[in-house]
Write the structure tokens for this entry.
Amino acid sequence: MMKKQKTITELSLAVVFPNPDQPRKHFDEAALQELAMSITDKGVQQPIKVTPRSGKFMIVMGERRYRASILAGKKTIPSIIEKLTDDEVDDLALIENIQREDLNIIEEGKAYQRRIEKGLTVEELAKKLGYKKTGPIYDRISLLNLKSEYQDFTISGELTPLQAYEISRLPKGKQDMVFQKVKKGELNTYNKLYAFVTGMINLENQSEIFALSPLTENERESISTFGSLVGSIERFISKLHQQDTLRHLEKAAFHSNVNAEKLDFIIHSLQKIRRTILTGEGVKKALKEAA
């Protein structure tokens, strides 16, 4: 059975208007100018889709062609008119933009969030978009937790998607510190960035937990002693570097009673302390004590 061909109507551009909830907000001006030149030469090759709204016609698909037609000085545009609900408009606009890869990841996140706020579950949205998993939707929505300037940096490419995802895991008040470290090249691999952000989150969680129950005098003394000891170790290591001692220690195996086994013990112990502080073991213990 042959599919019925939809009627194409030449609508005046004066009665056509963009969808205010169109997911795509950024249009490349150079690309629009190029399309406008093509429209001037050959006309609009594919009609836009519109739906009646308040005596005019709202664009469902084809806002780029609409904008380029205005730049080309056209008075009308070929259109397919279809009566659609607001939800149907949202679905079609989102699907078209994703299929054409017209949305940046921040625009995607905002579009997903809008559909969910209007009552669609993440699972239903994933099904509509043809996703087998909900992960991409959650990932994009998480980026909306970024401060507005970092959302802009993500769009411009100053932040990579992975960097943006990691920074978005933090409250807005903590994001500047991570961004500055990324910018300085101090977190130049994903593993370093992930570890640093996770450490900040765990420390924040610990602070909240310990704030619930005041520290005992013994606990305060232990923490103070530990802080002083770490400071002494840090100063000692800095001094070693400054005095070029590491080069002198090449002969340590023959002229020193500090052997590799002792160093291994120290390294192992420090790693254990680090895990206790950063990987949540301290949090679990505190929760158990508070229970």
